[in-house]
Amino acid sequence: MRCTLLVVILAVGCGDKYPVASAPPAAQSSSVPFATPDEVATAFPHADPNVIPESEPHRRIQRAAGRCKYYYDQAKMWQMITKRTPNSLHDLEAPLRAGEDDFVRVDDDPWGNRYVLGADKRKFTITSFGPDGQQGTADDIHYPPLEDD
């Protein structure tokens, strides 16, 4: 009863902004992991938070934004452990010590391109070049988001 009541309170608390899913996430049949609304808002600061994308292109963008954040978090952890900044995401794929598993497996983005780690000294950014696969275009996805000049 408490779980049911909690779900009702959460659903009512969201209002019309975020529709309630018909089934819990574990029960939904989707092979695409979704980023949280906060992760999407961070990756796309000018996007309308009231629009929840449903099409395949939007799901790919959402997945790439979530993976950029995930690889960023993993790179920060790697940096804390090794006391140095990774030069590329390839650094994260190697085991930290002999005989251990890889630190993290880095997959391609939803369009088949590698994610890129851009680093200088202690700061870095994870980037997907988006649907067009070209660096420096408007559809690039960065985490953390790039600041406007």
What can you see in these coordinates?
By secondary structure, this protein is an alpha+beta fold. The protein has a single domain (35-143), classed as Glycoprotein, Type 4 Pilin (2-Layer Sandwich), CATH 3.30.700.10. Helix content is 34%, strand content 9%. The protein contains 4 helices and 3 strands, in the order H-H-H-H-E-E-E. The protein has helices at residues 2-14, 37-43, 56-82, 90-93, and strands at residues 116-120, 123-128, 141-143. It has a 3-stranded antiparallel β-sheet, with helices on one face. A hairpin with a 2-residue loop joins strand 1 and strand 2. The radius of gyration is 18 Å and the shape is globular. 19% of the residues are buried. Residues 1-30 have low confidence and may be disordered.
Estimated structural class: alpha+beta
Number of helices: 4
CATH class designation: Alpha Beta
Task: Estimate percent helicity.
Answer: 25-40%
H-E order: HHHHEEE
CATH topology: Glycoprotein, Type 4 Pilin
Give the overall form. Answer: globular
Which strand-content bin applies to the residues?
A: 5-15%
Mean pLDDT reading: 75
CATH architecture: 2-Layer Sandwich
Largest sheet geometry: 3 strands, antiparallel
CATH superfamily: Glycoprotein, Type 4 Pilin
Q: How many domain regions?
A: 1
Question: How are the SSEs placed, and which strands pair?
Answer:
Blueprint (H helix, E strand, L loop, with lengths): L1 H13 L22 H7 L12 H27 L7 H4 L22 E5 L2 E6 L12 E3 L6
Antiparallel strand pairs: 1-2, 2-3
